[in-house]
Amino acid sequence: MIEATQAEVVKSRMNRTTIATAIALLFHAAGFIGMFTSKQSWFIANTPLNLLLMFILILWTHPGKNFSFFLFVFVAFAVGMVAEMIGVNTSLLFGQYEYGRVLGKRVFNVPWLIGLNWITVIYCCGIVISQMQNWFFSRSAAVQGLLSSKLQFISFITDGAMLATFFDFILEPVAVKFGYWTWLDNGSIPVSNYLCWLTISALLMTVFKLLSFSKHNQFAVHLLIIELLFFAALRTFL
To answer: Counting C-beta atoms within 10 Å of the first and last residue's C-beta, which end of the chain has fewer, N or C?
Structure first.
């Protein structure tokens, strides 16, 4: 009976992953095609729907949701929003920029959906790096033995922060082109933006690593790949 129940749980998770991945693929494929049609403005205007839906799919597919998981969600949202509020209103972080109207209602000049975006990016990157480390160490126990737990921790934080920053690097030109936000002064993306992304991502990756919740969600891996390909393709062809 217990084995049957465990099998049902695994099957349910696989079904959720399959359904969520299909939805993500459908929305991003439709969005990509739509960007090359006369309805481009309509697809851009519905970006908030896509951001919200991807966040909901993450919540739906995450296994064993507990207090620590929701604490991570809260911290990632709060830190992301506060950092953006400081950045937009003082130019002390990221650089001189402002948000457009595309992403919807704003709190102190920052769309609240940006907080969800920070959750999604950090969560997906954390899951990817965590699963990559588990895969690597499971096939190379000798290497794992040579690395202290402290070095493994530092490696996770560094790799996760760099992956999140790389995601922003791919996204930036597309976001500017579609009016999500605008860089002021000469319009170029400053190096300080990526340095701040690296620093804040490292902080949130530390929270992700230290909190005790499941670090396995195959949909998160699929979503990160889908979004990287989506923005990379738009960056290349638009």
So the answer is: N
d(CA 37, CA 3): 51
- The band of 26, judged by pLDDT with boundaries at 50, 70 and 90, is very high
Calculate the CA dihedral of residues 23, 29, 32, 35 and round it to 10 degrees: -80
Distance CA 42, CA 47 (A): 9
Query: How many independent structural domains does the chain possess?
Result: 1
Give the Cα-Cα-Cα angle 106, 125, 202 (nearest 5 degrees).
75
> Please, what sign has the CA dihedral across residues 20, 115, 184, 104?
positive
Spell out where 17-66 has E strands.
none
Amino acid 139: pLDDT: 73
- Which position has the higher pLDDT, 78 or 137? 78
> In terms of residue numbers, what domain contains 13?
2-237
The identity of residue 178, as a single letter, is: F
How many Å apart are CA 62 and CA 163, to the nearest integer? 20
Residues whose CB falls within 8 Å of the CB of residue 161, separated by 6 or more in sequence, listed in order: 198, 199, 201, 202, 205
The pTM score is 0.93
